[in-house]
Design a protein that fits this description.
Elements (H helix, E strand, L loop, with lengths): L17 H4 L5 E7 L6 E9 L4 E7 L11 E6 L5 E7 L11 E8 L5 E8 L4 E5 L1 E4 L5 E6 L9 E8 L5 E14 L5 E14 L5 E10 L4 E13 L5 H9 L37 E8 L2 E6 L3 E2 L5 E10 L1 E11 L2
Antiparallel strand pairs: 1-2, 1-20, 2-3, 3-4, 4-5, 5-6, 6-7, 7-8, 9-10, 10-11, 11-12, 12-13, 13-14, 14-15, 15-16, 16-17, 18-19, 19-20
Length: 333
């Protein structure tokens, strides 16, 4: 008699993070207030640790960002890395060509992102491949292409260096484009390379960012401090933890506007000039910022509950200057 045996999968999944286990730490919703303080988007969260899913629901009556009632279901693999997202739109809403439908994320054996595939409402898809190069000391570099296929004369190449703990320490934008046209009709190309070097304090918050910009058209090479988070709170890491849990695997990627992956995963993934640095790891109190060669000083005040949990984060939104940015946070318990 021939014995038939089936190979069993004895892989033990990584344990769920303590942040998801402890219900007193679970964020129920975050309200993102707009500039006028009237319009707002409420992002609500539900958790299923058995099925390894987190569901986001957006209440956006003005529908500036999402159709009101849109949902996104995040799925995680057996190592609790974000691997899939599915967007569910309200009844009666017909997804537009630019609306997200699904997102798939692939990783290597070291849990480093390799590929992100985004599918849209018109059936098209966009694939970003992240090429990894090991560096000394356990560091590594990722490189990817953010160029717009519809603009062949405009090329944006990205690089990012991470330390052995997975923290981003260098972010590079290499932008080549047509800068102007001469009276003779000749196109003049330029190459601007912007390098951000991040420095962290002992608790793990971003302390300072030094930017270097090289412009081949202007023949300039300048370095300056773009962010100096001079003081931070020593409590209130809930936004940081929420981002790490939601985006586990890509939470430390330096996506920035206009990266195509900037706003795929809700409010905590949105990043105009890396706004998330304000609450990584603890909330900013005061900061000096240089943006578009203008200098700004920010002083804000966040609030905490009796359990020292952050319930109101006051930061800044860099657009045409500093605009107040307020997040109101509610918990399940």
């Amino acid at each position: 008699m021939v014995s038939c045996q089936r190979e069993l999968d004895i892989t033990v999944p990584d344990p769920v993070t303590e942040y998801i286990k402890d219900s007193t730490l679970l964020i129920k919703s975050i309200t993102f207030l707009s500039e006028n303080g009237q319009d707002s988007i409420v992002e609500s969260y539900s958790y299923d640790s058995v099925k390894r899913k987190i569901t986001l629901t957006w209440n956006d009556p003005s529908e500036n960002e999402y159709p009101d009632g849109t949902m996104a279901e995040f799925s995680y693999n057996d190592k609790w890395l974000l691997s899939h997202a599915m967007y569910i739109y309200p009844a009666g809403y017909i997804p537009q060509a630019w609306d997200y439908t699904t997102i798939d994320i692939e990783y290597d054996a070291q849990k480093v992102v390799q590929k992100i595939t985004v599918r849209y409402g018109d059936g098209s898809s966009e694939i970003k491949v992240y090429n990894k190069i090991p560096l000394p000391g356990g560091n590594y570099q990722l490189s990817w292409d953010e160029s717009d296929p519809g603009s062949p004369d405009d090329q944006v190449l990205r690089r990012a260096v991470f330390n052995a703990d997975g923290n981003n320490i260098t972010s590079i934008v290499d932008h080549s484009y047509i800068a102007e046209t001469t009276p003779a009709g000749d196109d003049i190309y330029t190459n601007v390379i912007r390098t951000d070097s991040l420095f962290y304090d002992a608790p793990g918050s971003v302390k300072k960012i030094i930017r270097n910009e090289v412009d081949t058209l202007m023949h300039s090479n300048q370095s300056y401090v773009s962010y100096d988070f001079s003081t931070r709170y020593t409590k209130g890491d809930q936004l940081y933890n929420q981002r790490q849990a939601l985006l586990n695997g890509i939470a430390n990627m330096p996506f920035f506007d206009p990266d195509s992956n900037t706003d795929l995963f809700g409010g905590l993934s949105f990043s105009l000039e890396n706004e998330s640095w304000q609450y990584l790891k603890y909330p900013v109190q005061t900061a000096d910022i240089r943006w578009n060669m203008n200098d700004y000083h920010f002083a804000g005040s966040s609030e905490f509950d009796s359990k020292d949990r952050l319930i109101k984060f006051t930061g800044f939104f860099l657009d045409m200057g500093i605009t107040p940015s307020v997040y109101k946070i509610k918990y399940y318990k």
